[in-house]
Design goal:
Largest sheet: 2 strands, antiparallel
Subcellular location: Cell membrane; Membrane
Structural class: mainly alpha
Radius of gyration: 21 Å
CATH topology: Rhopdopsin 7-helix transmembrane proteins
Number of strands: 2
Strand content: under 5%
Pfam families: 7tm_4
Protein name: Olfactory receptor
Function: Putative odorant or sperm cell receptor.
Keywords: Cell membrane, Disulfide bond, G-protein coupled receptor, Membrane, Olfaction, Receptor, Sensory transduction, Transducer, Transmembrane, Transmembrane helix
Order of helices and strands: EHHHEHHHHHHHH
Shape: globular
Number of domains: 1
CATH class: Mainly Alpha
């Protein structure tokens, strides 16, 4: 691959989060606990949706897919980030850097589309309840999931095909704790102004557009509910507040990472950690602690597991 694109760089140097030994132990404990929570929380949601027939509805099928994507997105960076905390020199090979970038944008693109699908599901359920089962049938649900994956892969490939062929002659200091298109492009040996604009348009403006589209759709849903029956407004807002929280947590860091004109390393690091660590661990809590059906289903599944252990 290096010979094909004319690169002499075979590895990149990642940025360490801290040089303080005490802070390294603190971050190791912090990230390890959160990553364990990401794994357990999201896997538990997926298992609950699969094995509880009461949750075989479009809303929970989309939620299970969101949990899988959160787990995958976090796993692209967090395990390496934890292992690099105590490393003197954080090195990532050229191939692994390219793969990390690709999967970050595949999972990020899929999550973006899943959030749109979940907003459409809530719009149909709240604004067109009599037609919900007709519109959000199993075929439509499957179509939304497949479309999310196709768009996510297309989003990643449309940037990856340009970056993979860039020549890298040095320096190779990434200036970040993970590989991403903006940081990698700046290390190329050629003028990449046009390519930087493509990345900003692809990742940044799409994130902005999707964020405002989702925000407007939720406002429209609340206005529609208020017009029909003001007594259901608080219930609808309670239901949608979980979705709105997830949208803000996911999209705001994306917009700052790809659109912000004056990025700083500390700010970029903070927003990247929010997207890779904080959001994936909060999503299970947001969708389970505030959802009666999920809490009942999880309690039912836990009791079944305990009873099966007692029998054996």
């Amino acid at each position: 691959m290096d010979q094909v694109n004319g690169s002499v760089v075979t590895e990149f140097v990642l940025l360490g989060l801290t040089q303080s030994l005490g802070m390294q132990f603190l971050l190791f404990l912090f990230f390890s606990v959160l990553y364990l929570g990401i794994i357990l929380g999201n896997v538990f949601i997926v298992v609950t949706v699969i094995f509880d027939s009461h949750l075989h509805t479009p809303m929970y099928v989309l939620l299970a897919n969101l949990s899988l994507i959160d787990l995958a997105l976090s796993s692209t960076t967090v395990p390496r980030m934890i292992s690099d905390l105590f490393s003197d020199c954080q090195i990532i090979s050229f191939h692994n850097c390219m793969l990390q970038m690709f999967f970050i944008h595949v999972t990020g693109g899929v999550e973006m589309m899943l959030l749109i699908a979940m907003a459409y599901d809530r719009y149909t359920a709240i604004c067109k309840p009599l037609h919900y089962l007709t519109i959000m049938n199993p075929k439509m649900c499957m179509f939304l999931v497949v479309a999310a994956w196709i768009i996510g892969v297309t989003h990643a490939v449309s940037q990856f095909v340009f970056v993979i062929n860039l020549p890298f002659c040095g320096p190779n200091n990434m200036g970040s704790f993970y590989c991403d298109f903006p940081q990698v492009i700046k290390l190329a040996c050629i003028d990449t102004y046009k390519l930087e604009f493509v990345v900003t348009a692809n990742s940044g403006f799409i994130s902005m557009g999707t964020f405002f589209l989702l925000t407007i759709s939720y406002i429209f849903i609340l206005i529609t509910v208020r017009r029909h029956s003001s007594k259901y407004l608080s219930k609808a807002f309670f239901t949608l507040s979980a979705h709105i929280t997830v949208v803000f947590l996911f999209f705001l860091p994306c917009m700052f990472l790809y659109v912000w004109p004056f990025p700083t390393k500390s700010l970029d690091t903070f927003f990247a950690i929010v997207d890779f660590v904080v959001t994936p661990v909060l999503n299970p809590a947001i969708y389970t602690l505030r959802n009666r059906d999920m809490k009942v289903a999880m309690t039912r599944l836990s009791q079944q597991l305990l009873n099966s252990r007692e029998v054996t």
